[in-house]
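User: Some background: our group keeps a shared notebook of sequences we're curious about, and every so often someone picks one and asks for a predicted structure to add to the entry. Today it's my turn. The entry only has the sequence so far, pasted here. Could you supply the structure so I can complete it?
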Amino acid sequence: MAANKQNGKRFSYYIYNTMVDIFDRLKKAEGDLGQYRSKSDGYFMFPILEGEIGPHMKFNGKEVLNWSLNNYLGLANHPEVRKADAEAAAQFGMAAPMGARMMSGQTKWHIELEHRLAAFVKRPAAYLVNFGYQAMLSIIDSLVCRKDVIVYDSEAHACIMDGLRLHMGKRFVYQHNNMESLRKQLEHATTLAEEQGGGILVITEGVFGMAGDLGHLKDIVALKKDFKFRLMIDDAHGFGTMGPTGAGTDEHYGVQKDVDVYFATFAKAMAGIGGFVASEKYIVDNLRYNMRSQIFAKSLPMPMVIGAMKRLELIQTRPELREKLWSIAHALQKGLREEGFNLGNTESAVTPVYLNGSVPEGTNVVVDLRENYGIFCSIVVYPVVPKGVLMLRVIPTAAHTMEDVQRTIAAFKEVKDKLDAGKYQSEEMQNMKLSKD
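Assistant: Of course. Here's the predicted structure to add to the notebook entry:
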């Protein structure tokens, strides 16, 4: 309602907006990523890679050296894994078990996998989940009530951010890995939690999947001396890769007993689908009965469960796979740094290569790498990274070779020289094959 005044008289009237069709609005509001669809679809976004999963695959009909697979230990095509997957599919099919676990989808194999996972990460109990993303949303929703306060790292994964949206209570964000910032937010959270009669949950990641740095778990745990809170970590990129046995980033830091809720997925080191959450038995039991994303979802299919057990067995019994991953990662990162590349603060296998340039220049860099050098990796641009910054995200695996490493370092060096010389500035060059000369 709006008011107006004419000839000394005041009167009111209503302003009505014109109703629109939802689909008409969506035509104009494609979203942060969708706005690039016409130029990016099928090449920069939703690219199609063909062939067996590994370092050498086909893209646009050409063989490329692939650095964009979540297959850290090379298990995707490990013969024992392929055999276990095939035998489980032949025995059970993809439909079994038919139903949600609470209703009709519970099996002794699901329970057995949970026991093995709990023992591996040194927790009393674990609960199997279908997908990491949906599970994180539901875990957060189940752990806290509106009186509780959540304190989280500013660079937490999107699944954590979306889980926070479901929280009906207050949340505070601290600057990425900044312990002084975390302390200040814990002070605010403590005051509010005491007023409301609630508790505090701190959430961070073990390995930050974009930049490759580690959550400062030891320093966070140390704050428990001054504040009362529970700590949950998302260790998707740390499980299977970090720690003396591969049990995760908290094992790497020696703080497993101080991390109250441990969460990881099978989508990275295990090259599979699914994940798990581990904690005290009464917490896991509570999650089993309250995680809506699992209660109302079909149980994880048997081939995924049997296959996950084989993958876990290999993580535990074949340390040479993890050793090979780290030998490749260290050689790649050392070589790139020696050539003057900025890799940020990575402490994991995740290898971000930071360059200076615009988004059009970045797309030209990717085209050149793929079309002329036969190297496939992901690129990250604004708004994920600041304006003027480009990030090539490289994921080494145990399946790569030292020859792959040397070839990539040489190609990146040539491409960086071209970028610095301004050869990628023309927008007309976008999506064109560029000369290596």
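Suggested note for the entry: The first strand starts at residue 2 and ends at 6. The first helix runs from residue 22 to 28.
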